[in-house]
Amino acid sequence: MDTTARPGRPPRMSRDKIAATAIEILADEGYAKLSMRRLADRLGTSPMGIYYYFESKHELLGYLFSRHDGVADYRRSRTADDPYDRVVQAAETLVRFLEAQPWALAGIVDGHVEIEEFTRRHLRDLADGVRDLGLRGADATEALRGVWRIVIGAAVLGSAPESGRAGAGSPVPCAETIECFLAGRLARAAATAAE
Questions:
Q1: What's the rounded mean pLDDT across residues 112-124?
Q2: C-alpha span between 94 and 71 (Å, rounded)
Q3: Second CATH level (architecture) for the domain 15-67
Q4: Cα atoms found within 13 Å of the Cα of residue 116, Cβ hemisphere only
Q5: Thinking of the domain 70-194, which architecture would CATH place it in?
Q6: What is the model's pLDDT at position 22?
Q7: Which residue, 123, 126, 130, is CA-closest to 108?
Q8: Residue intervals in the chain for CATH 1.10.10.60
Q9: Taking a C-beta distance cutoff of 8 angstroms, is the pair 101, 74 a contact?
Q10: Using one digit for the tens of pLDDT, what is the confidence trace for 7-56?
Q11: Where is the HTH tetR-type domain positioned along the sequence (predicted)?
């Protein structure tokens, strides 16, 4: 049997194949090492072959986050009815997702991924829960920012190799912190409304 490669057109490229290779580079080498040229070299094509599918690195990163709508895969139970519990549950889900997808966490922390893009795709449950708590305007914005900071902190600490937690599936330690934070935000909003 002849196992030599046949001359002619190289194997077909696809957006998913490019995305999978980009995630490998991000996970192994970090965002600074991801370039269209490096990606093309890894795939055995020219940079123009990559640009046929993605206009820019920014578009590629946006695709990675839209393709990886896997936050739902990290939910442990059905969505809670109580908005307070729903916010905590959504935050815990985000922590699990970011711990399991270090390329996503690194991109957010290092500023390579726009928070707005991630927020639009993955924070809807969190935003809906905050709104259902009765927080509006600046109170809702500050509550979301605070919970998001707790999520990022928990994910960074949980994904650190010395934490011993990465990939272990152990409980996310941010629930109590988020509960206390939300209680404070709700009390502040009630006090402001009473004035």
A1: 68
A2: 6
A3: Orthogonal Bundle (1.10)
A4: 0
A5: Orthogonal Bundle (1.10)
A6: 94
A7: 123
A8: 15-67
A9: no
A10: 656 557 899 899 999 999 998 888 889 999 999 999 999 999 999 999 99
A11: 12-72
